[in-house]
């Protein structure tokens, strides 16, 4: 049973204004954030440089399969709702409903979390200014950028992400020079890879725990699929973004882990100080801490900016398809889903208020639910692609006519789905002990699952939906996609 919103069928569509360079930076910026600037030190401390390299390589391969899966569907059917629409068309409307709302609250909560983080960063320079002032200011900036147009969002994200990319490139150059002794006064070489328990610390369990952290670091790459609905030429820009961005991200992450692991002993790495700051200081660069604080602040604003964009587009798409109130499908004169933006801002602000004190249990649960929601979305992408390709063949279509074809099908989406499921159910492994179980930690780790299952069950029971047969899967947007393909 596929329910659509007929009232919105004649309403104006999102304007296709995002260019290739915007998509490239949206995908790049979505994956390069505090995970690389802050959390990387802790991952090396826990698993050693070798363990961190193994974990990030594995998760990178999974993300590659997910990106190519999303790319194949997004070039064929470029829509703002992306995998929410795909799940509804290719699998079951109930799954699409659950994935859509799951993705929306994921990024709405992320916006709130980034506002809290931004305020904490500003205390480095202005310790006496109340945090709420900075949080409100950052939220206003993000709302204004998203209110202007999709192009304004894309342009701001281009520059936000550009700062992060340039910082990582400079870091890799300076780090390499420090390793060989050009900077810092001595040749460090690779001796830190073999001190104490290095390169692998804590064995397979530590690598698995870092595998979970690595997954959070790469979340945001799927935003290129959401942006497809407003891309000028999806058939050309999406494949280019996917083929180039993935390898750049992998090189950046693995290169950064290698440099940090070589220069900073794993026993000294942690989350108190950015590993970038430690390396820059080792190279003799003055004001390294202030510089990295500014870069991390840029990263926080970038993530909040992307979160606002992604969540509003998802609400808009669900409203167009009857899985959200119809008023959320309204566009302003600049093609921005204005009501969806307002609602997301209100919810993000409410979540932010619970985070004024980081110890607040509700806030901790919100952030935990948001993190898990990202992996659920990834699992949905893998499942959607598997069903899409099977339905494509079952209906007698020629896969060679696809504008972009994912490699390694069906192995790719199957591996990605299995790894996502492992990550989802492995979230709380550190809270289970032979003697005691930290139930508070367990609840925080898995609270996203009952929320998702509740959304799915609600829609399933209300509308009595069933899994769509492969022969009945709706693939009728092919003409729209082909019109935007490379000619």
Automatic annotation (TrEMBL):
The answer, when asked if Membrane is one of the entry's keywords, is yes
Kindly give the InterPro entries that the UniProt entry links to this protein: AA-permease/SLC12A_dom, Amino_acid_permease_CS, APC_YAT
The Amino acid permease/ SLC12A domain sits at 22-467
Q: How does it sit in the membrane?
A: Multi-pass membrane protein
Recorded GO terms, molecular function? amino acid transmembrane transporter activity
Positions in coiled-coil regions: none
Q: Does the record carry Transferase as a key word?
A: no
Q: Which GO terms describe its cellular component?
A: membrane
Q: Can you tell me where the transmembrane regions are? A: 23-41, 47-67, 104-126, 132-153, 165-185, 205-224, 245-264, 284-304, 336-357, 363-388, 408-427, 439-459
Q: What highest taxon heads this organism's lineage?
A: Bacteria
List where in the cell it is found: Membrane
Query: Which PANTHER family does the UniProt record give?
Result: AMINO ACID PERMEASE, GENERAL AMINO-ACID PERMEASE GAP1
Q: What is this protein called?
A: Amino acid permease-associated region
- Native species of this protein? Clostridium cellulovorans (strain ATCC 35296 / DSM 3052 / OCM 3 / 743B)
């Amino acid at each position: 049973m596929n329910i659509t919103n007929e009232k919105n069928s004649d309403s104006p569509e999102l304007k296709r204004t995002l260019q290739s360079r915007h998509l490239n930076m949206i995908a790049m910026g979505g994956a390069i954030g505090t995970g690389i600037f802050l959390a990387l030190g802790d991952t090396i401390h826990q698993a050693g440089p070798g363990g961190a390299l193994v974990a990030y390589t594995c998760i990178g391969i999974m993300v590659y399969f997910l990106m190519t899966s999303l790319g194949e569907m997004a070039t064929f059917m470029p829509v703002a709702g992306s995998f929410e629409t795909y799940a509804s068309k290719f699998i079951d409307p109930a799954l699409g409903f659950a994935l859509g709302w799951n993705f929306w609250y994921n990024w709405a909560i992320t916006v709130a979390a980034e506002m809290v983080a931004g305020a904490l960063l500003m205390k480095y320079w202005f310790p006496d200014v109340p945090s709420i002032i900075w949080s409100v200011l950052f939220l206003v900036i993000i709302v204004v950028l998203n209110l202007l147009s999709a192009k304004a969002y894309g342009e701001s994200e281009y520059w936000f992400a550009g700062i992060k990319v340039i910082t990582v490139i400079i870091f890799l150059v300076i780090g390499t020079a420090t390793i060989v002794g050009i900077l810092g006064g001595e040749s460090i070489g690779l001796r830190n890879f073999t001190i104490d328990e290095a390169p692998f610390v804590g064995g397979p369990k530590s690598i698995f725990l870092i595998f979970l952290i690595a997954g959070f670091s790469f979340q945001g790459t799927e935003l290129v699929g959401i942006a497809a609905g407003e891309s000028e030429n999806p058939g050309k820009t999406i494949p280019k973004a996917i083929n180039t961005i993935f390898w750049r991200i992998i090189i950046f992450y693995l290169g950064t882990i290698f440099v940090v692991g070589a220069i900073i002993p794993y026993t000294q790495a942690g989350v108190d100080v950015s590993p970038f700051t430690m390396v820059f200081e080792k190279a003799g660069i003055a004001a390294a801490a202030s510089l990295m604080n500014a870069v991390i602040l840029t990263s926080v604003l970038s993530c909040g900016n992307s979160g606002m964009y992604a969540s509003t587009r998802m609400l808009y798409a669900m409203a167009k398809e009857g899985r959200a109130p119809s008023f959320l499908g309204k566009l302003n004169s600049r093609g921005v889903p204005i009501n969806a933006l307002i609602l997301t801002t209100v919810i993000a602000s409410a979540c932010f208020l619970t985070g004024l004190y980081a110890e607040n249990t509700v806030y901790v649960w919100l952030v935990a639910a948001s993190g898990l929601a990202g992996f659920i979305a990834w699992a949905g992408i893998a499942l959607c692609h598997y069903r899409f390709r099977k339905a494509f063949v079952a209906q007698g279509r020629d896969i060679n006519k696809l504008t972009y074809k994912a490699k390694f099908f069906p192995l790719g989406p199957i591996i990605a789905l299995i790894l996502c499921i492992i990550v989802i159910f492995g979230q709380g492994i550190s809270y289970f002990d032979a003697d005691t179980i930290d139930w508070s930690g367990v609840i925080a780790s898995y609270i996203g699952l009952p929320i998702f299952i509740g959304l799915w069950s609600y829609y399933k029971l209300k509308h009595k939906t069933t899994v769509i047969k492969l022969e009945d899967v709706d693939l009728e947007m092919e003409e729209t996609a082909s019109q935007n393909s490379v000619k």
